[in-house]
TrEMBL record:
Domain TF-B3: from-to ranges: 128-225
Top-level taxon of the source organism: Eukaryota
GO cellular component, one term: nucleus
The protein's name in its UniProt record: TF-B3 domain-containing protein
Organism encoding this protein: Daucus carota subsp. sativus (Carrot)
UniProt cross-references to Pfam families, sorted A to Z: B3
Length: 231
């Protein structure tokens, strides 16, 4: 099952090697799908007004001159960049920190920017990202959502349902809130979800809301083996 609103995008897990480089390689599948749309000069825009012009190398499928962005936002590896293609030249860019939350964007003056930037808290325009570490016992069908994501769980009812999508596949997960410790958990459906995606302990799941709904999410996976190799 596909979700209703499709936006061409990709996400990139950032390694320390990426941060020490001036280039960022893009996913081959995304580049091939958008080969007729992507221009040689692109603009990356962050919600605080930060804009950066970067060259796109079509032959090698990479952005150049990314080092300034890594330095400006203090990226060191372990973060995730989400690129949303607006048109062939413009991308919206979101930065997810190691804690799984989209970072608070401070005002960063920078000489190569096309416009001035201002400080922005992610909560001023809505919650967008979260990750869970799959460390549950294989027979458990319950995952407790960390309290750091209370801004999201406050939007759910005491008993609720969320839909999670990856490509044409979808899963229905049951949400339940407990008075004790103000705890919110995924109470049902997680075993099927975990088995279908072949998740292992230490894998990171990035859940991204879609269709402006707190009950519909797209999921992307970063495998534990990849993270360990990158560190």
């Amino acid at each position: 099952m596909d979700y209703a609103t499709f936006v061409p995008d990709f996400f990139k897990y950032i390694t320390p090697d990426d941060c020490s480089s001036n280039d960022l390689f893009l996913p081959e599948k995304f580049c091939d799908m958008q080969q007729d749309n992507l221009k040689e000069n692109c603009i990356l825009t962050i919600r605080n007004g930060y804009k950066m012009h970067v060259p796109y190398d079509r032959n090698n499928r990479k952005f150049g001159e990314m080092g300034a962005l890594f330095r400006d936002f203090g990226l060191a590896g372990g973060e995730v960049l989400i690129f949303e293609l607006v048109d062939g030249r413009n991308f919206n860019l979101y930065i997810v920190g190691e804690d799984g939350n989209e970072i608070d964007y401070s005002a960063i003056p920078q000489s190569c920017q096309a416009s001035s930037s201002c400080g922005v808290s992610t909560y001023s325009t809505g919650w967008k990202f979260v990750k869970f570490i799959t460390n549950a016992h294989p027979t458990d069908d319950e995952v407790t959502i960390p309290v750091e994501f209370k801004s999201l769980t406050d939007q759910w009812k005491k008993k609720d349902i969320i839909m999670v999508y990856k490509g044409r596949f979808s899963w229905k997960l049951e949400i339940k809130k407990a008075r004790e410790g103000n705890r919110t958990s995924i109470k049902g459906g997680f075993i099927q979800f975990r088995n279908a995606l072949q998740l292992d302990v230490g894998d990171c799941c990035f859940f991204r809301w879609i269709n402006e709904s707190y009950n519909e999410f797209r999921v992307e996976i970063v495998k534990a083996a990849f993270i360990a190799h990158a560190e």
